[in-house]
# Entry
Amino acid sequence: MDYTLFTAAIVFLTSGLCVGQSVLPPGPLTGAIGGRVKFTTTLSPPAKPFVSVSWTFNRVNIITSTTVNITNADHKDRISLDRTTGSLELWNLGLRDQGEYRVSIIPDGALELQGATTLDVYVLLSAATITSPPATLIAGISSTTLTCEAAGNISSIQWIKDGLPLCPSNNITFSVDNRTVHLSPVQRIDNGEYDCLVSNPVSNRTASHNLTVNFGPQNISIDGPLAASTGYRVSLSCSADSIPPATFTWMFNRTETGVNNTLYIIERMEALHIGNYTCTATNNITGLKDSVVHKLRASSAAPMWSFALMVTSVLGVGLLQL
# Structure
């Protein structure tokens, strides 16, 4: 066997490479403007130094190393070559550094080794924002859009609402590039915090926006006793789901009471207080209102504490008689 071919075979076996196999891992590599990147070969340091190592960028030589290093002027002072493995490090990256990189390595007494990969350079993302047209939104009537923007190369955009992924629905659609969410019409459940996560291979940023959808009043109710005994304090509480919070008015037997808050208090129950109590909730933004009626009647049952006192008294009398 020819000695040169035998030596070449030994080099391939010790390097773990097959004929024609690239000495660079699949690309692309990614880097950020102003950052650094290393093109690392799959080679281990040989017993004898490589005869030569040469790197090209878009087919233009950037460095050739034999007994001396010859470096392209555009890459001087910002590349470093590891001659033991043929790996190359490049820093102070700019968009001009995007493209194809090739390496050619000639081992001592062996066949040439080659590799190729590509480099993508990205601008670091900054100043992510969500914008929306200024408007007062009313559920079931209004529409709006949320637009996500950021300075830099955006590779992907994800939308989050209240900590969960935002998905398309009957009233939610996304633009093709995912930058804009269109809500038409807005609904009560669309209230909440919206986040957009923008990212590229070298950075990510998040922006937040709180969306207020005015709705209601809905689910109005009065909490309080259905019956009350004479002499007792009675409290009726009115509530409704509404954004902004609803205002309340009370009527008693269809007569205005002048009470304009959630609570209607009867300090001392009398016969004249028996009847229908109407609570009306009004939303001053949506212009909607809703009412509910609570019927209060008299109660003849003695309170539990009064009954207990009576039993105790009877037992006491019985014991005295014994």
